[in-house]
Amino acid sequence: MTEHCYWRFSRALHRAINDQSFAEIEGLLHENVEWALYGPVDMFPFLGSRHGKDAVLEVIRHVAGNIQLRRFDRETTILGLDSAASILRCSLLTRASKKPIALRLAQFAQFEAARLINMRALIDTFDLVEQALGRSIHLPNIGSCVAETR
User: Fold this and answer.
1) What sections of 20-124 are H helices per DSSP?
2) 36, 47, 95, 109: which one has the fewest Cβ atoms less than 10 Å from its Cβ?
3) What is the C-alpha end-to-end distance of the chain, expressed in Å?
4) What structural domains and CATH numbers belong to the chain?
């Protein structure tokens, strides 16, 4: 049985981020890759949608320049023939301030000829923003904001 492309991609992405070694991940990206990390783009400019290998490599380099991946645990992973979905819990460390950040994300990946063609990740951004700000965000109770209608 051959190794699933998702495992190769995951290891290459981990090495790219931590070791800032991009040759392996570059070889696993399709030329027309679609990439989206959903979250607050104004606060984290590496989030958002990208198209094409060069644009995705730029995002990976930006992430690698700013964070180190300390640990990630796959809570759940589902593999298809040319696809994968995972729920991950990650521990990060900012390179500049050495501030720890923990986050959860759901990741969905599709492969064509063993190369990543489509990747979507939904990040628990509310918690991420609180950690980046260094404080809790207090929101009003939704019941007090909505007028009761009859």
Assistant:
1) 23-27, 53-66
2) 95
3) 62
4) 5-145 (3.10.450.50)
